[in-house]
Design goal:
The structure holds 2 protein chains of 2 kinds. Helices cover 45% and strands 9% of the residues of chain A. Chain A is an alpha/beta fold. The longest helix of chain B is centred in the N-terminal third of the chain and has 42 residues. Chain B is elongated. In chain B, helix 13 packs across helix 15. Chain B is an alpha/beta fold. In chain B, strands 1, 14, 15, 16, 17, 18, 21, 22 and 23 form a 9-stranded mixed sheet that branches. Chain B has a 6-stranded parallel sheet with strand order 4-3-7-8-2-11, sandwiched between helices. In chain B, strands 24, 25, 26, 27, 28 and 29 form a 6-stranded mixed sheet that branches. Classes of the chains: A alpha/beta, B alpha/beta. At the A-B interface, helix 1, helix 2, helix 5, helix 8 and helix 9 of A face helix 3, helix 4, helix 25, helix 26 and helix 27 of B.
């Protein structure tokens, strides 16, 4: 980009003659439901799911509403974002084991946490791996939480306490003994002990997830992705723990192991492919550029959301000088994002990605009832607006496709771009 | 309701429509603004005069001029702020539109210098304008620059009500835990106990802190305000005689002089009456009580101020600890930061010791950036906002402020219209006494039609001229008559809905009586018939927008019921979000999830939450509140709906481990799903309208997410956080409107309608008492310069001794429904009625319209009343085409013109008692009309609406719950040829391994004991994979036959490399066993055709070649990603694709089928890529415990059939 090009950042968007259908809903969650109802209605009219994609400028505020809306309209969604591994059960299990091992004594909740998270003895050390004994049923764990004494205790004391508690079964004792028998943390024991916990989960925890899951295996897939990640994490932990011990930046304690695991886990790896052929792809806008699908549903076309105001720390005067290529700053690389150019490009990409039609959605008010303005990016394209009545029919029981979309679906290849 | 633009034409968005042009005062002030480089320019406007239009124009033109003059970043130099959030959201789009209009129509000369491309670029830059929005938002931006300097770790969240409540609660509780303050707090709590309508000490402290920050007061200065108020209630100090009490009565009732100093003869009727009423020992009792009250009050003021001082200190720390501040805090901190310790002796750490150079730098940046400041709704700016804004403005700046003092309705939020008044009249504003100062008054309204303007004038002019109403307070209320610029027609534009009043005006019965037509019923009928017969339709026959405005939310429910009964769709936002069964259920379930195994909690959930309506407690109690026992032991004991709820709860319990890791907004959704609350199929939240229920649950989740920010609240913390709102839903957020965009009528409070307008405006519920909930009912008052703490309520006051005319005697806080709280606090009594009630003397004294009570408190009460009348004015002036008011036909009520909107409207419109017919209203010197027609119930009562939009069904989400079990089963999206067989054979069984990227096992034969393999650390699978890798590695190294046959060092190296790459270390014996077996494998390999082809120097050998493709099956796509071990190409073009398997046992028939399919898949992929397949051979070679060559007999399209099988399962 050159200085003189800065005006290009606001040139009308040069989009092919794709139809753009605009749908405004009252709130963000209504918007998410409108978007997913549209996807479902298109699918139900014979549009293959792979011919549909949802694009969002920033998934953070939209992932949860879109996920819920998708379930409502019986669409299995997949979000092409990095897995938040720290929010997954396999990771929490590893963390909780470290916490149960940390210090000289732990309280009841900390002790029981790994069991809540389906800790099971690894196949190698436990009895029959297919035994129905493990993991301990959640209700038994909750019951034990009521029956066991409160207050911190050392692992051997816990073994005693469990033995003398009425109604707490033997599996709790076995777990407490496992904790009591755990070695001091060194790179090898960390890897083997935590590895054992993870493999125990693979053997018996994961199948619980699958058993309770829907046929689309939404939770199972996430859980399995997490297991793959946590297996890697435990391997890395061994080496990084050794390095840190050597460098003297860590103590030889389970607390520090947990911290280190947290550090590794939050260094997010790249996206992983999603495994369900029947799932609807939901992308962030920066992943849309290479896409080529007939129908794109672009979500969140409100001012402030898409485009989002520039977050640069550089003074705007300096940014503009660079954009203009003036003076000494002329040799610096201008950032289109400074004037919303990147968001604009991504919007243009979303439009170009669509072979037949783009549905743009937006919401008109905040949770507090304040108005939310339409995205200025929509000024660049001619849109066909869906009436509120048609939108209500779409999200209603009959899921009736709005006329503007119906025409395109029924119109054969007429809407194809060249 | 639409945002007010108050102009004549066009939406300003360019296009073919004629552009909007400024006129009259609008134009004059704009001309003045651009004629000077610096100065103050104010526009004092009537409603609808287009002040926002002028503000947006000035901002747009200023930006454009700067751009044309060579400023590359003009949007950085023009700040545009408004008090009103809705309007603030419109600023940027409005400026962008205005820029386009200015350029396209060359409205100003600078426009000629800007090309279309530049205009677009400029518009885009304006989209990023940093200083356009609410005043709060603007100040927040400044605050972020230095938050770190004054002890905040990160940028704190601003205006997070939940967190701020917690901050205040923590501050209060920590004082309770502190021996130094505990006793004082106990005394205060005893003196000011919590009550349904009474603030507790905690809230009083929190209000006092906000007030001090708003007024920039030290606690000592605050104390003297409280003392002055107390002194005003005891003008002679601590009473030393009964006469002193009588003198206070005289002064408070009759106003004026200091009373008699010598205790001599009574000078007034009021004094005389009290002396008559209190005689003998009662005088001593009264005096003793009054002296005690004086002392106790003094002591409580001292307690309050000492506790407040500590409270402020704690608050300072707590906001930093929690990372949460209020909007007032932000303004306060901006002002304090820029003031610095030299200006402000009262500042404490860390504000005292901030880095001066950084402060100077921030200030310089802002002052150099903000060259122009545009302030909309300037009458609503508070003292501390004004102070904070003052820092960024210098006498070199150009300031445009527009507002309307008569629309000042935020005194209660410490808005101070006097700043704007001083700006317009004296030219002082934002700390500058401006050399250049221009003010214009705009009285032309572009909003309403002439009849509406005339009707408003008829009502409002007498109100503002009345020293008992609009002109009662400190603020100058001179009324400029509205002069409508729009044309009108001959049809009535002012309407009265006339009805027989039943009961007391303002009561529920009055609004919607059983079996009779009340205020709301008549209005609903009038509107609905008027929408049907065309009265409230536009020229095209489309229904007009209708907004019903309320002073308070109290009667909205009765109104909504009446309107809905009339078939009108109402959009409203009134009830508390936390006061709705669905939301209560979610929170009760979250509370239970803190420890779902606890029988006590389960009992609480099932008996105290809305779920209790569904369950019979007995059968649970009998089973120790154990969900599983209830479900398992006696299936007949619970019905289907209950069972589903129980299963939902059990599911939540079983997943509760996840709720510590997820944001509260996410697990709240889990609860909603598990209990099917949006659709409420189980009937636990059926009190609510389905769409409203969905909107409420949506709002709950959004609110939690907003409160949570980047943090995460596990159930225990969430419940702690929402506790104040569950306890008192009224202090929390309101329920959102569920009407979506399809509604006939919108209900709003007048405060929320500020800045907006609508075609038809209804002033609802005008019969309330203006004085109710006035300062006489409050324990803590804070308004402008006056702050006061009421006398303590727990001193002994002889209730049997009257102190006429005070109903409360000496002092009685009472229930808050009377007009006074006794002699020593504020009242809502008029002087004449106070006197009249006791005697027959004439009430036409010049002071008849003064209030009774101590002067400072009279001021507070007077200002509040004046604001209530300004509120009426704001309500009336929202109307564009029609103004509708409900008035009773009955006339028996006493005239309460000074105390009720109802009477003021009736008087203004000269509505006759018993009036049922439309009539003409003659007007005197109105700029719009000599007379207007008032339509009374003027709609065809038999008209029926042919609804253009038939009632739509509910949102699906409100009717059927999400059903995960209805999602189509999982189908693998990515497949490999080698695992295609097992996965398509039994997807369910192999899904987990597939997802984990692990090998998919098929039935194999037992590994023979004859093999030299030990399986100490490695399983058969791992051994097979390892040796396979060793074999391909060997070929990749280009090792020759002799070296392989003798298993020389190269073969060994390839083997070791493969073993070393294993994640597990292998012992010597196991390793050697594997190597021995590897030697056997190599033997097979060398004897195979495969080796022959590889070894042939004329062939080209590819190792581990990718083979990818896409299969479309039905409407699905499945990607196939394969890898063939060897692809050998001969010079003749013949290709051999071979995959090698290392067998540890004799292959089973299933294994062979697996290989067959793998080969078929290769062929399929080749077909896909369009290769001619004639010269390709594909085999799987098995070496080791078995030696086989599999050459497929299966056709490639078997791939389709297998995948189809997956789909159809």
């Amino acid at each position: 980009m050159t200085g003189a090009d800065r005006l290009a950042l606001s040139r009308p968007i040069d989009a092919p003659a794709t139809t753009v259908v605009e749908m405004a809903s009252p709130t963000r969650r209504d918007e998410a439901r409108s978007a997913m109802a549209a996807a479902a209605a298109l699918r139900d009219r014979g549009v293959p799911v792979r011919d549909l994609a949802v694009a969002v400028r920033d998934l953070d505020p939209y992932e949860e509403p879109l996920f819920r809306a998708a379930l409502q309209y019986e669409v299995a969604p997949v979000f092409w974002t990095q897995l938040r591994v720290t929010r997954t059960r396999p990771y929490a299990l590893v963390e909780s084991v470290c916490e149960a091992l940390a210090g000289n004594s732990v309280d009841r909740e900390t002790l029981l946490r790994p069991l809540e998270l389906r800790w099971s003895p690894a196949t190698a050390t436990g009895p029959d791996p297919r035994s129905a004994e493990w993991p301990i049923e959640p209700e038994a764990v909750h019951r034990a939480a009521e029956l066991l004494p409160d207050g911190p205790r050392s692992p051997p004391e816990w073994v005693e306490a469990i033995e003398s508690a009425d109604g707490v079964d033997d599996r709790f004792r076995r777990f407490a003994e496992w904790i009591a028998a755990a070695p001091a943390p060194d790179p090898a024991s960390v890897a083997s002990l935590l590895g054992e916990a993870v493999e125990g989960y693979v053997d018996r925890g994961l199948s619980e997830t699958k058993a309770a899951d829907s046929p689309a295996l939404l939770d199972t897939e996430t859980d399995a992705r997490a297991v793959v990640r946590v297996r890697t994490l435990v391997r890395q932990l061994r080496h990084k723990f050794a390095d840190r011990l050597e460098a003297g930046t860590l103590e030889r304690s389970w607390d520090d192991v947990a911290d280190l695991a947290g550090v590794i886990a939050t260094q997010r790896p790249g996206r992983r492919e999603h495994s369900n052929a029947r799932a609807l792809d939901v992308f962030e806008a920066n992943d849309v550029w290479a896409l080529d699908v007939p129908y794109v549903i672009a979500v969140g076309l409100t001012a402030g959301e898409w485009p989002r105001p520039s977050q640069s720390v550089l003074p705007p005067e300096f940014q503009e000088a660079v954009l203009r290529g003036e003076g000494a700053s002329g040799s610096l690389a201008p950032q289109p994002a400074w004037v919303g150019g990147r968001d604009r490009d991504q919007f243009a990409d979303a439009i170009r990605a669509a072979g037949r039609c783009v549905v743009v959605t937006r919401h008109t008010r905040t949770p507090d009832g304040d108005d939310v303005a339409r995205s200025p990016l929509l000024d660049h394209v001619d849109t066909r607006r869906v009436s509120e009545e048609a939108r209500r029919r779409l999200v209603g029981a009959d899921q009736e496709l709005p006329p503007a979309l119906r025409e395109i679906v029924d119109g054969g290849s007429g809407g194809d771009r060249e | 309701m639409t945002a007010g633009r108050g102009e004549t034409v066009s939406d300003g968005g360019g296009g073919d429509a004629a552009p909007l042009r400024l006129r009259g005062a609008q134009r004059e002030i704009r001309d003045a603004y651009f004629a000077s480089d610096a100065g103050l320019f104010t526009l004092d406007c009537v409603p609808g005069a287009g002040k926002s239009v002028v503000a947006h124009h000035i901002a747009a033109e200023d930006i454009l001029r700067r751009y044309a003059a060579g400023d590359p970043t003009p949007e950085q130099h023009v700040a545009v702020v408004s008090f009103n959030r809705d309007e603030a959201a419109d600023i940027v789009p409005a400026i962008r539109d205005r820029l386009r209009a200015i350029v396209e129509h060359e409205i100003v000369p600078a426009a000629a210098d800007v090309s279309e491309a530049e205009l677009r670029y400029l518009q885009q830059r304006v989209g990023q304008a940093p200083y356009a929005g609410t005043i709060d938002g603007f100040l927040r931006g400044i605050f972020r620059e230095f938050a770190g300097d004054i002890g905040f770790d990160e940028t704190p969240s601003v205006g997070n009500d939940a967190l701020l409540k917690r901050v205040h609660r923590d501050c209060y509780e920590s004082l309770r835990d502190d021996a130094e303050h505990d006793q004082r707090l106990r005394d205060l709590e005893a003196a000011y106990p919590d009550g349904e309508y009474d603030e507790g000490v905690g809230e009083m402290l929190s209000d006092a802190l906000t007030y001090c920050r708003d007024r920039r007061l030290s606690t000592e200065a605050f104390r003297s305000e409280l003392e002055r108020t107390r002194d005003a209630a005891y003008p002679d100090g601590k009473p030393d005689s009964f006469d002193a009490i009588a003198r206070s009565v005289e002064r408070f009732v009759e106003g004026g002089g200091d009373g008699s100093e010598d205790g001599g003869e009574p000078e007034s009727e009021a004094g005389e009456r009290v002396r008559e009423a209190v005689t003998g020992s009662d005088r001593d009792r009264l005096l003793g009580a009054d002296r005690d009250l004086y002392d106790a009050w003094d002591a409580r003021i001292d307690d309050f101020c000492r506790v407040l001082s500590a409270y402020r200190t704690r608050y300072r720390d707590a906001v930093r600890e929690y990372g949460a501040v209020s909007h007032t805090d932000v303004a306060y901190l901006v002002d304090a930061y820029f003031d610095g310790p030299e200006e402000r002796a009262d500042l404490s750490e860390p504000l005292r010791s901030v880095d001066d150079s950084h402060r100077e730098r921030v200030l310089r940046t802002y002052r150099s950036r903000i060259r122009s400041l545009v302030v909309d709704e300037a009458q609503d700016v508070s003292a501390v906002q004004h102070a904070a804004l003052s820092h960024v403005v210098t006498s070199e700046s150009r300031v445009f402020a527009c507002g309307d003092g008569l629309q000042g309705i935020y005194l209660w939020r410490h808005a101070d219209p006097r700043w704007f008044a001083a700006a317009t009249t004296e030219g002082t504003y934002l700390g500058v006494d401006w050399d250049t100062h221009e003010n214009r008054s705009a009285t032309t309204s572009y909003r309403c039609v002439p009849d509406v303007a005339a009707g408003i004038n008829a009502i409002a002019e007498p109100v503002f001229a009345d020293p008992a109403r609009g002109d009662l307070g400190d603020f100058d209320a001179s009324y400029p008559r509205l002069d409508a610029a729009r044309d009108g027609d001959d049809e009535p534009a002012v309407h009265v809905s006339s009805f027989d009043g039943v009961g007391h005006p303002g009561s529920a019965t009055w609004a919607n009586p059983d079996g009779a037509v009340g205020e709301a019923n008549m209005l609903a009928t009038h509107l609905s018939r008027g929408l049907a017969d065309g009265t409230f339709r536009d020229d095209d026959g489309d229904p007009l927008g209708v907004t019903v405005l309320f002073r308070r939310g109290t009667r909205m429910a009765e109104y909504e019921e009446a309107f809905t009964a009339e078939g009108l769709r109402v959009r409203t936002a009134t009830d508390a979000l936390f006061d709705c069964p669905a939301v209560e259920t979610v929170l009760a379930a979250c509370e239970w999830l803190i420890a779902p195994g606890s029988p006590k909690r389960t009992a609480k959930l099932l008996t105290e939450s809305p779920l209790c309506a569904v369950f019979d407690a007995a059968s649970f109690e009998a089973r120790s509140w154990d969900l599983d026992r209830v479900l398992d032991d006696d299936p007949a004991a619970v019905g289907e709906a209950q069972r589903r709820i129980l299963r939902g709860l059990a599911r939540l319990r079983d997943r509760s481990d996840a709720f510590g890791r997820l944001p509260a907004s996410a697990y709240a959704e889990e609860v909603i799903e598990a209990l099917a609350l949006r659709a409420d199929t189980h009937g636990c939240a059926d009190e609510t309208d389905p769409d409203q229920r969905v909107a409420n649950l949506d709002a709950l989740v959004e609110t939690l997410s907003e409160w949570e920010g980047d943090g995460r609240y596990p159930p225990s913390e969430l419940i702690d956080l929402v506790e104040p709102f569950r306890e008192d839903p009224g202090v929390g957020p309101s329920q959102p409107s569920a009407a979506g965009a399809a509604y006939d009528v919108e209900f709003r409070t007048v405060h929320r309608s500020k800045g907006d307008q609508d075609d038809v405006v209804v002033v609802a519920d005008p019969g309330f008492d203006v004085w109710s909930r006035g300062p006489h009912t409050r324990r803590f008052v804070a308004q402008g310069e006056v702050a006061g703490l009421a006398p303590p309520t727990n001193t002994e006051v002889p209730g049997d001794v009257p102190v006429p005319p005070f109903d409360g005697g000496l002092y009685d806080a009472g229930d808050g429904w009377g007009r006074d709280a006794g002699l020593r606090w504020a009242t809502a009594r008029w002087r004449d009625s106070a006197v009249d009630s006791e005697s027959d003397s004439p009430s036409d004294s010049p002071d008849r319209d003064a209030l009774v009570g101590p002067d400072r408190l009279r001021r507070v009460a007077g200002n509040e009343r004046a604001e209530a009348w300004r509120l009426l004015y704001v309500a009336l002036t929202r109307a564009r085409d029609h103004l509708v008011v409900p008035l009773p036909r009955s006339g028996a009520e006493t005239d309460l013109t000074r105390d009720r909107w109802l009477d003021a409207i009736r008087d203004g419109l000269a509505f006759p008692r018993g009036g049922t017919d439309s009539y003409g209203l003659r007007l005197d010197a109105d700029p719009n009309r000599d007379a207007i027609d008032i339509g009374v119930n003027d709609a065809d009562l038999f008209a029926r609406r042919d609804r253009q939009t038939p009632r739509l069904g509910h949102n699906r989400v409100a009717e059927s719950p999400p059903r995960r079990d209805r999602l189509d089963p999982w189908v693998p999206r990515f497949l490999s040829p080698s695992t295609m067989y097992p996965l398509t054979e039994d997807a369910d069984r192999h899904a987990l391994a597939h997802l984990l990227g692990e090998p998919l096992h098929t039935e194999t034969n037992e590994v023979s004991g004859d093999l030299p393999l030990r399986f100490d650390r490695l399983g058969p699978e791992e051994v097979g994979t390892c040796l396979h890798d060793a074999l391909t590695g060997l070929v990749a190294r280009g090792v020759d036959e002799r070296a392989i046959r003798t298993t020389g060092s190269e073969a060994r190296a390839a083997f070791d490399e493969a073993v070393n790459a294993l994640p597990k270390s292998v012992g010597v014996d196991e390793r050697e066993g594997m190597f021995a077996f590897f030697e056997a494998v190599l033997g097979d390999f060398l004897d195979s055709d495969l080796w022959e082809r590889i070894a042939d120097p004329k062939t080209e050998v590819g190792i581990e070649r990718s083979l990818d493709g896409l299969v479309e099956v039905g409407d699905l796509e499945v990607e196939i990603h394969g890898r063939a071990d060897f692809v050998v190409e001969s010079p003749t073009g013949e290709r051999f694709v071979t995959d090698v398997k290392i067998a540890l046992a004799e292959p089973t028939p299933e294994t062979r089928r697996r290989y067959e399919l793998q080969i078929a898949a290769y062929a399929f992929l080749a077909e896909q890529s369009g290769a001619t397949d004639a010269s390709v051979r594909r085999t799987v070679e098995t070496f080791g415990a078995a030696r086989e060559t599999t050459a497929s007999s299966w056709p490639p399209d078997i791939v389709h059939r297998r995948l189809r099988r997956l789909l159809d399962r």
